[in-house]
What does this fold into?
Amino acid sequence: MEALYSLCDRFSEFSVSSQWRSLLDLYLLIEKETTEFQKTYGVACPPGCGTCCEHFVPELTDLEASLIGAYLLFVKQDPSVVARLAAFEASSGMCPLYDPDSPYHCTVYPVRGMICRLFGACPSDDKFGNPLFRKCKYNTNGDSPASLDARDFGTDTTDIPTMRKLSVQFSALEPIAATLPIADALLRSFSRLQFIAAHMGSDSHDDDNGGSDPLVPTPTPLAS
Ligand code: SF4
Ligand code: SF4
It folds into this structure.
């Protein structure tokens, strides 16, 4: 997370920087609350599981996409992702940022979007607005409860993080948020980030030929 907040500092002259910072703050809060929820109720995915990502192409808002795009271009410094995403076939049904060969699977884990943080990690609401957790259908962890409801949560559910509560906080950051499939959303964000990087002046660096590569504004990655 330190590298990501540093990224916000580097782009501080652009308004998107403060939006990234607010989103990172929310991601930290979600991490804290869902981790506490999972610990309290014994909810856990099997180690190394990433099956949901093999069967899911998430959608992203502009803000989610711009943070992931900035992470790929300026922190991981992987401009090759642009061509990979342009060639992505949505009909494959698998998230284009999923790496089956990596034990961590998600190649953008620190900045993954909201749905990727909430799915399988916290309850949704039942038809009466009460928290209701159901274990993901791919979860083979026999120690994780199949479902949790009012009998488990009791009457005071103010501390239970639900998808609705956390999504409301997310909506406050980006009130009118249309979404696009992840590859389209990222390709759009790359165009905007390229524009921003091109206007960073001294933060852009010269390449080996003495030219400027606006997609790689510093020679040293902040993190891998
Ligand atoms: S962004 Fe990461 S966590 Fe989300 S579906 Fe893709 S690989 Fe999975
Ligand atoms: S949510 Fe389900 S599929 Fe995704 S990692 Fe957890 S158990 Fe696996």
